[in-house]
């Protein structure tokens, strides 16, 4: 850290209890913006953790206060994963943004998210008209598709352990749709309520903020059709208000699912480049 | 009819390319043997298998059903290629 920068643990009053957070503060007098950083879902949070620490420090070094925080039932925050719903998490993000507004008054406040965290941040922005900027790393386009695809990971893990998968996705999904108990999703309890709300979660049709920067992170150098179309739609809709929407592709292993060390430098540099030149 | 190639590319060779590409391996496709046990030689784990599944589905337009998640399918390049052939064998996918 540079001289004057501060990192401190904070507690935020969230929907389901206290939320644990880490504030990365720029040197006094140098704050020019602030971001709430929204982590991915379940195991993806663990894998992306270090990258988000590095991003937060890079932000603070260039004058952007960064608040990493754990959503209800996640990490060190109160509540259980069984208490969590999309609605609760959206309100957690609103609480984090509000906290930042008090800690860094008078500067633009934004939100940054990875994977489902990005989609949650974009959804929460609909309730936060004062939230000016969004940075979305590999946002989940559809909560329902994401969850159904992710259930395969459970089957694959069963296969790696036992030679074959023991369950089917339908078994899990039927249980959730009927509200019969919970599904153990990689050690994270998923309730029917959370599942139902995930099914309704998508990136919004209207641009969620004045300035939106999206990173597609994966094997492809070209932007996927759906993301490209959404980005173009947001740009067109926001043009009259002077909104700015951009999407870039970073060819990289997925930082949210790799167990080995993944260099998040390219994603961080692309983000900081955007912040240096943004609205 | 058993299909060895899709287009001009031997399926095993394309699977090797997919492995290197999707898993960001620091080897060349030619270094991967058809019958290497990839969990041993390439350190493939559950995360990698997920990437392989997505890669094969996108490349060949096929779909992994839940009952297809059997380690024998993913054991070697040859096994994966045979799986692709079995899925394409009715002419409903591929080139």
The major beta sheet of chain A can be summarized as:
8 strands, mixed
Mean pLDDT over all positions of chain B:
88
Q: How many helices of chain B?
A: 5
**Rg of chain B computed from alpha carbons, rounded to a whole number of angstroms:** 12 Å
Unreliable residue runs of chain B: 90-95
Query: Widest sheet of chain B: strand order?
Result: 1-2
Shape call of chain A: globular
* Strand count of chain A: 10
> What is the CA–CA distance across the termini of chain A?
26 Å
Low-confidence stretches of chain A: none
In total, how many beta strands of chain B? 2
Estimate the helix proportion of chain B, in percent. 40-55%
Main pleated-sheet profile of chain B: 2 strands, antiparallel
In DSSP terms (H or I, runs of 4 or more residues), the helix count of chain A works out at 8
Radius of gyration of chain A: 18 Å
The mean pLDDT of chain A is 93
Strands ordered across the widest β-sheet of chain A: 1-2-4-3-5-6-9-10
**Termini gap of chain B:** 15 Å
Q: How is this structure best described in words?
A:
- The complex is a heterodimer of chains A (279) and B (95).
- In chain A, helix 2 (86-103) crosses helix 3 and helix 4 packs across helix 6 (192-199).
- In chain A, 46% of the residues are buried.
- Chain A has 279 residues and is an alpha/beta fold.
- In chain A, the strands form 2 sheets. Chain A has an 8-stranded mixed β-sheet, sandwiched between helices. In chain A, strands 7-8 form a two-stranded antiparallel sheet.
- Chain A has 8 helices and 10 strands.
- Chain A has helices spanning 43-61, 86-103, 116-125, 143-162, 169-177, 192-199, 225-238, 265-277, and strands at residues 6-14, 17-25, 33-38, 64-69, 109-114, 131-137, 182-185, 188-191, 211-218, 244-251.
- Chain B is 49% helix and 4% strand.
- In chain B, strand 1 and strand 2 (9-10) form a beta hairpin.
- Chain B is globular.
- Mean pLDDT of chain B is 88; it is low at 90-95.
- Classes of the chains: A alpha/beta (279), B mainly alpha (95).
